[in-house]
Amino acid sequence: MVASRWLTSGPRGRHMPVLVPAAQHEVALAAKAITSGTYMPVSEVLALSATVSVVIPTLNEAENLPHVFAAVPSWVTEVVIVDGRSVDDTVAVARRLRPDVKIVMQAGRGKGDALLAGFAASAGDIIVAMDADGSTDGSEIIRFVAALIAGADFVKGSRFACGGGSADLTRSRRFGNKFLGALVNCLFGTHYTDLCYGYNAFWARHLDTLALDCAGFEVETLMNIRAAMAGLRVHEVPSYEHRRVYGVSNLHIVLDGWRIAKVIVREWRQFRRDARRPVTDLIVIDLPLTD
Ligand SMILES: Nc1nc2c(ncn2[C@@H]2O[C@H](COP(=O)(O)OP(=O)(O)O)[C@@H](O)[C@H]2O)c(=O)[nH]1
Ligand SMILES: [Mg+2]
After folding, report:
1. Where are the domains of the chain?
2. Is the distance from the beta carbon of residue 67 to the nearest atom of ligand 1 less than 6 Å?
3. What is the mean pLDDT of residues 160-183?
């Protein structure tokens, strides 16, 4: 007897859910670590088989780097600095503080462009993105890594989750973040408590899924939307944002707020197009069935 079955084939759309064999991947990592004996002790009760890259974009942060590096745990596999043509001693200070630091000289401009270059240069199984101004605290990296190990694909830091907070947010930035976050939650059905925060982490194998393509401060918004639209398991962990230690923010609330709003609208249009698109990649195959 022969029966016709409809099966999907071909590559999935950018916003189609991607089923990720996370458990398989993590079990394979653990198996590799057991056979090669390469567990990295994290604390008295925890060892890690995954390697961790920390990506830090820098623009004139020489004075802040000692504070930032001091809090990065020793079990982090590599630190990647992406420098946006700093005119101070940022690169020299980074090399002095951590001789094994990986330095990427940014070709383009903007924080998003820097993060993309840093992600591409990372060798770790896990990538953590944080800031170089002392506002994001390296001692929280374990929270992000633990959430990934526990099954998340993408982990967002949240200043508004229970246990989080900020000493750096001005009233207008807090309002803008709330407004844009509510817009994203409404348009994409997410339940994010924080949208524009620079402390995030994900399994490096999801880089292609995220397919990041932006240059500025809208990068975190884009990551959050793409992670949700790709069907990745997104967890939030509480994070406390300290005040920038030295210097001033490079973010311009109106210009960068406008860029973020444009990215949200662009992604929403794409999301609607994907939802309306007829499924054209179906093929029929005949399967012989036995009685
Ligand atoms: N490489 C690079 N880093 C940048 C650029 N703009 C900002 N950053 C870094 O991105 C992080 C966040 O920037 P910041 O000015 O503190 O913005 P805020 O935290 O939103 O107020 C800091 O580590 C900056 O040094 C850029 O154009 N290139
Ligand atoms: Mg900052």
Report:
1. 32-275
2. no
3. 98
